Amino acid sequence: MAVTKRRRVEYIAVISGILVAMLLMGSFFIKSIQNLLLDEIEESLTEVAEHSAVAVDNKMTGRLEILRSISDLEINKDSKMNLNQKIAEITQEFGNAGFVHIGISDEDGNAVLDDGRMAYIGNQVYFQRAKDGKSNISDSIVDNFGEEKNIVVFASPIYEDDKFAGVVFGTDKTEKLIDLVMDIYNGENRETLILEKNGMIIANDSEKIKNNMNFFTEIYEKTNREQYEKLYGLIHSGKAGSGEYVASEIDKITGIAPIKNTNGWCILIISPVEKVMQKANKVLLMTTAVGFALILFVILAITYFYFFNKRYMEEKYFASIAKKRLKESNSQLKVKDEFIANFSHEIRTPMNVIVGMTYFLKKTELTREQSNYIQKIEISTTLLLGIINDILDLSKIREGKLKLHKQKFTIREVVQMIDDIFSSRIHAKNLEWKIVNHIEEDMVVLGDKQRLLQIIVNIVNNAYKFTEVGSIELSVKKLSENSTDIEFLFSVKDTGIGIAQDNKRRLFLPFEQVEEAITKVYEGTGLGLSICNCFVKLMNGNIWVESELGSGSDFRFTVRLEKMQNKEELDCETHSEILVKEPKPAHVLLVEDNDINAEIAGMLLAELGIQYEWAQDGQQAIEMCKNHEVDYYDLILMDIHMPKMNGYDAAQYIREKLKGSYPIVALTATLIDYELVKKGKGIDDCLLKPFSAVEFKKMVLRYIEKQ
User: Fold this and answer.
1) Which of 435, 407, 410, 408 is nearest to 421 (CA)?
2) CB atoms closer than 10 angstroms to residue 172
3) SS3 for 496?
4) Sorting pLDDT into bands at 50, 70 and 90, what band is 170?
5) Phi and psi at residue 495, to the nearest 5°
6) CATH number 3.30.450.20 is the correct assignment for the domain at 72-176
7) Which of the four pLDDT bands, split at 50, 70 and 90, describes residue 543?
8) Under the phi-then-psi rule, with left for phi > 0, alpha for psi from -120 to 50, and beta for the rest, what region is 659?
9) CATH, domain 369-572, list 3.30.565.10, 3.40.910.10, 3.60.15.10, 3.50.50.60
10) In CA terms, which of 199, 532, 661, 663 is 20 to 30 Å from 120?
11) Which numeric CATH code is attached to 576-704?
């Protein structure tokens, strides 16, 4: 029993000791928290005061800027106009410019206000400061303009031939100054004062405080000397800080900040200490609760880690594996994109030769049969370029960078091109080819002609591949029309193998085809319809298919194109030639490492009657520029990918080292270069290979005719 009793005493003693220790620590903790919060509140109030002071200064400075702009008006410098005439002109244009009154004076201080009253301001401090060349804001003064309350005056000097000629000024009631503060900050349970350097309160938001009271007088008797001197020193020295004082039997804490561009004004943001301590106690209670919650959380966390550590490590391991695979996948995509870019460049460069030589071949004497062959070459070139663009478009679709390029065209043009491409092929397969066009021949629209052509070509080509007997029909009609655009419905109907119901939803996904067996027979990449779907969406339309297995398919899509009001004005791309209006003599520098492409560009320039010089790389182009005076050339046509020095470096050297200001147009076969040129690189414009003769001539004339 004695042992048990002793153990109880020991237990009680331990518990009591713990409790006493906790009480002492708690008391110390509470006091520390309270002091810490008071310090933080003082710092917070100071920051609010500083922000408010800056904002008020900005607003008041903005009002001074208005007066400066008015003082710079020519009418104020006109000695033939009297003050009444000048103020009439000012108020007619600016009103009272946001002031209670706005006025103007002569060099002697004789003034007139916007309401026609006369006054003398020559003895006022703000007038003397303005006379000394300073735009300024006055202290609170007794109004000598007929108002009952104190005012502040904003003043800006007027100069005529560098000689002081008077002052433009605006007046505001001091009580309105607090509105500037309240627009910035309106804190709960807080007061805001604006003081002059001598302690005079000129604006406040408190119901218990009146303007024209002296702050120092109000707090002197009840405030601790040390705190009083601290506040007095901050206000008089124009420094930011904080302090405590007693007013109306209430302990208060304040943040102080000076207002620039005034005669020692400052802002006080004030909060009762009692309110601060109430918040401190709430914070303390929350802190204690959070402390216990954290302890509990730590216990639970340790338990969780102990029991579930194995699962955590496994998940971390698998996450690292997934991250590694994602990195490898992104690396592969980067390599793929670089390959596609190089592929585009290597294909487009020789295609530019094909397009160019085809153009000049057409200008020779040809038989009807030869002309037909040339037409087929042009169409096939267009199709080949479309295939290349499909591959590049897929990369852009993945990155969300695909955009439409608008031009003027007619629906008839598109339908005719489709007929030229497929007519002979479809007839050669012993299929019937029908075109039903319900659109007027002269209807001109604005949109991406090439993308629309790609959509129809892809769909008709699918119909051609999957139809062995019967017919293929292309139809187009107008669905709706408003003042700005027209909605069209295109339909490609065939009598082919058809599509099973379960396979329809996969048709417009990338790399999807209906069945493996069909793929082996008819082949295909599975890109066409997914790209079509993307193009249709960009044109604010929809695409779908109506089909049954063994009964043919009807692919339909809608697009919305902009309406053109002037049917006669088609882009020059729709015509085979450009009419040249006697271009003035010009010098063009052609920079191209490919001999055949250089020959084609030279022949096109010759057709325009333009002289040119040829450089085979960027370094040679720089040397040729050095051999002539600055801006000798009217235009530089610059290939990008060249040996010795590329087009970017050459253009940059010409711009920075040679100070050449002539236009530089890039000739490139890489879409990446085309996008970079748009962002600068010292090049003004870009022409993408392969380009047509019309595109080339249009680009050249655009810059030559500017010279």
Assistant:
1) 435
2) 20
3) coil
4) very high
5) -115, 35
6) yes
7) very high
8) left
9) 3.30.565.10
10) 199
11) 3.40.50.2300
